[in-house]
Amino acid sequence: MSDALFSSEVEPADTRYLWRLWFADLLDLATSALVGWGVLRMVDVERTRGALVVAGVVTWLLMSLASGLSGWTLWRGLVGLRLVTDGSAPGGARGLGRAFVVPVDLVISPFLQRRYLDRILKVQPEAVALLSKRWQRGLGWQVFWLVMVLGSVWFIVMPTRREAVTYLKRLDGWRCCHAKTPPSAFKCSTSVWRAMGAAESGDTQAQAIVADCPRASGTLER
């Protein structure tokens, strides 16, 4: 028992918290892809495979930079870990460097049971008790990424201007505009709302659609 206690005291942090950090890194990667997708929908850019990859990579780099400056991400905070170098935040350079090694570490660390690439960067996880004062000091960073995630979900769920206009031009859109029963009440209401917003901002195509849509034009006249 004493040997087990001694080994836990000298065990490297990247081994002791291996799976907690692995899980947080995996979710951070997924979050960057989600946020990148949400940004593309927000700016109504055509979502090709290349555009999705670029948006996800750029978001991942920005997330890694921010986590290097603070040591925190949303998911690290939820699993009670902070990345540190000599007790302080790793810094922007190490954060960006980690952006390139994390995908590799996610693959090899379950087999090696070590985070060797993190060791090369001199970065290691530090346990922080949930709701402790130290954890609360990083809450601002966690809330920032939570807001980004929620905002991305909003833009993913809501139709873009292009999608709303295309929908309202079709038969289902005609049924929506003329108070018939459309296949999807949610898609009907959100498309009308999105088209109205685009029309009010001066989009001529949306204005023409709204003018021919009694449901939308009637709402504007109120």
Pick out its properties.
222 residues, disordered N terminus, 2 domains, two-stranded antiparallel ribbon, elongated, 74% helix, mainly alpha
In terms of per-residue confidence, which ranges show pLDDT below 50 for 5 or more consecutive residues? 1-8
**How much is the radius of gyration in Å?**
24 Å
Beta fraction: under 5%
Number-wise, the strands total 2
Helix content estimate: over 70%
End-to-end Cα distance, whole Å, is 76 Å
Kindly report the spatial arrangement of strands forming the biggest sheet. Answer: 1-2
Count the DSSP helices.
14
Characterize the main sheet.
2 strands, antiparallel
Number of domains: 2
Describe this structure in words.
This protein is mainly α. It folds into two domains: 2-157, no CATH class; 161-221, no CATH class. It is 74% helix and 4% strand. It has 14 helices and two strands. It has helices at residues 2-10, 13-16, 18-42, 49-70, 74-79, 92-112, 116-120, 133-137, 139-157, 161-169, 171-177, 185-200, 204-211, 214-221, and strands spanning 81-84, 124-127. Strands 1-2 form a two-stranded antiparallel sheet. Helix 3 packs across helix 4 and helix 12 packs across helix 13 (204-211). The radius of gyration is 24 Å and the shape is elongated. The termini are far apart.
Q: Topology of this structure?
A:
Blueprint: H1 2-10, H2 13-16, H3 18-42, H4 49-70, H5 74-79, E1 81-84, H6 92-112, H7 116-120, E2 124-127, H8 133-137, H9 139-157, H10 161-169, H11 171-177, H12 185-200, H13 204-211, H14 214-221
Antiparallel strand pairs: 1-2
Helix pairs in contact: 3-4, 3-6, 3-9, 4-6, 10-11, 10-12, 11-12, 12-13, 12-14
